[in-house]
Amino acid sequence: MPRRTRRARRARRGMTIGLLVLASIAIITVDYRGQAHGVISGAKRAAHDAFAPLQRGVDEVVRPVGSFLSGAVHGGDLESQNAKLRAEIGALQRQTLETQATRNALRALEQLDHLPWVGSIPTVTAQVTALGASDFAATVQLNKGTTSGVAVGMPVVGGAGLVGQVIEVWSSGSTVRLITDAGSSVGVRFGSGSDLALLQGSGLGRKLAVNLIAPGTSLHKGEILTTSGLQNAQYPADLPVAAVTSFSSTPSATQETVSARPLADLGVLQYVEVLQWQSSP
Amino acid sequence: MTGPAATTRLGGALTTADVARSTIVIVVVLLVQHTLLDLVVVDGAHPDLMLLLPVAAGYAAGPDRGAVFGFITGLVADLFLPTPFGLSALIGCLLGFATGTATRGLVRSSWWLPPVVAAVATAAGMGAYAILGAVLGDPAMLRTYLVPALVVGTPSAALFAVPLLRLVAWGVPEPGPGHGAPPGGGLR
Fold this sequence. Notes:
By secondary structure, chain A is of the alpha+beta class. Chain A has two domains: 58 residues; 160 residues, Rod shape-determining protein MreC, domain 1 (Thrombin, subunit H, Beta Barrel), CATH 2.40.10.340. Chain A is built from four helices and twelve strands; from the N terminus they run ααααββββββββββββ. In chain A, the strands form two sheets. Chain A has a six-stranded antiparallel beta barrel with strand order 1-2-5-4-3-12. In chain A, a hairpin with a 4-residue loop joins strand 3 and strand 4. Helices cover 65% and strands 2% of the residues of chain B. In chain B, strands 1-2 form a two-stranded antiparallel ribbon. In chain B, a hairpin with a 3-residue loop joins strand 1 and strand 2. In chain B, helix 1 crosses helix 2. Chain B starts with 8 loop residues before the first strand and ends in a 17-residue tail after the last helix. The N terminus and C terminus of chain B are likely disordered. At the A-B interface, helix 1 and helix 2 of A face helix 1, helix 2, helix 3, helix 4 and helix 5 of B.
């Protein structure tokens, strides 16, 4: 091969990769600075809307295979869950022998169903259709979007507490960033209500870190942390979020080392409520 | 694929048939990823075929087409991800180019070569993805998510390497003679 041709090919190759890298950096910069936020989110919405029917169709066919693969990966977990469920069934069977106990259980379920701490905020019930699409963020997808009144920034709750916040929305679905995502932070209250802290995610399945608690602050295991609802907060006040699991402090520490677990079981989410509430500007 | 439309040249390199096949490959892989593989979650991570696509393209069709295909695949992947837009496109074009360049001179008769290339390139791609994500203001991508992503993504890349390479060798044909990859992308 003539040397000139080889050199020309190498130059063309260098130019191709150079242009692609420059284009990528330009796109990242535009997205990062928020200059084309409307265009990019519009493109994402359009892609989701176009892809959703295709995804639903294929999903119907392949879900049994996916469930099988998922089951194979989580075989150990399933066994322990089965054992736990069998124990719960036994307990429930004992309860059915006592009418009063059954009534109480039903009342408790009704209370859960109505989520008393949501108050008068209108809600949209949604089904979790997929787990996170990225290995680098803890998110889930819901089957409700703009056509159901869901918008970016709305809080999402499960039966027991806060689940996360809507970060992307299209006509028939939305993406929710879970409170366990390492990029998530929630302002919380505890104790008598005057103690404030910041709850930060550490990744799916990991405990939450509770920051900004002064050393010596009165705490106990199981203490419930609720959203603070301070001005410009991302969540309305008094939504239960997490329970304290451990706390410790060293003499030189500037804050307590506190960890908590989410009250909502984020590993087995099936149905959630999207609160039609927006943070005040 | 012999009609007039199929032989239309785009930029003197690709035919519309090539573009159509590449599009089919991307859509099929995207569907498999978001319907099947997203369900296989271990410690928050799952196999990532969209990251493996540029690697396969670089291996099968050489650095030029690997880079272009990686860029397009990355942009499509970014449409469905909550991470910074354009990041997958950057990693995709670099991965496609690097894989094509690194494997150009290799003898491709070994059965273990595609899985090894896929695993190494995927690990490098995930590392670069996490580092760039951290630089762009999300340190958790490096601190929290990289290790589970590597633990799940690397072996699964090795596992899916051969079938994906066959699909990509069909969808992203190598350029004319002397452009790097041997006929068929070096696959037997």
